[in-house]
Amino acid sequence: IYLGGNEQSTHKYVSELLGKGTIDKKSSGETKGRQGSSSRNYDVLGRELFTPDEVRKLDNKKCIIFIRGFVPIMDNKFIPFNHPMFNQTADGKGEPYVHQIRGADNLIGPPFEILSDKAVKYYEKLKDKGENVYIDSLTYEQFMMLGDAELSRRFSMQDEAEQKAKIDREQANELEYVDESQKSDAAESANASNGSTGAKPVRNPEREKPKWEDTITNRMLHWSYTPEQKEEVKKALAAGVPKATILTYFYAEVTVEKMSSYRNKH
């Protein structure tokens, strides 16, 4: 809606929005003399509906309305000051409206429920069965600061973590591991060839080469290790064992005792 103004760029902008129209042009001419003549011409020309200066001189009681899909409309302005309901507005004698933020009113019952131990076990069983159940652990401070956006974000993170864990388990099942006898033979042959100071386990040549970067962190993310194996790797890193050396024996099929012996030899 254009209500009027005195900005030159606005006048030009409104004039361009209004577009152009056609007008009829009539001209006549006469030549006097011994052989006088006269002519009369009719032309159709195009011009702006409102030139910028005409937009500037628009009556203050008028306004121009632009509606998508319709031609522009010029109409009278509505003057609200004499309306009988004007005093109820904030510009009159009324109080300004202040929006009060309220919670969701469509909840049936309390927004949360304290579960017993039996109920928690019931939902844990549902989650183990693959039902649409999310179980999260929060401190009291985190729970008090939890809003709708944060709740949705935590659910999304949990869902992504569960999907990733499922994919990791499927990939782990596809990996081929050597038998215990083969592993022991490989370890013994490595000890015999390298001596007592630099023994290293032989990597299974049939193991599928991972598609991700082979690092200690990625192995812990993609392969299944026991807590004791993970703790042993932490001890090896703290003892200064090179990561390249740790990668030679850090496999799920290598026992904690063997990992500890490799660490002690370095």
From TrEMBL:
Classification via Pfam families: T4SS-DNA_transf (PF02534)
Recorded coiled-coil stretches: none
UniProt cross-references to InterPro entries, sorted A to Z: P-loop_NTPase (IPR027417), TraG/VirD4 (IPR003688)
Basic and acidic residues bias (residue ranges): 162-172, 203-214
Chain intervals for the UniProt region annotation (Disordered): 162-214
One GO cellular component term: membrane
Xref: Gene3D superfamilies: P-loop containing nucleotide triphosphate hydrolases (3.40.50.300)
Protein name as it appears in the record: Type IV secretory system conjugative DNA transfer family protein
Provenance organism: Agathobacter rectalis
Organism taxonomic ancestry: Bacteria, Bacillati, Bacillota, Clostridia, Lachnospirales
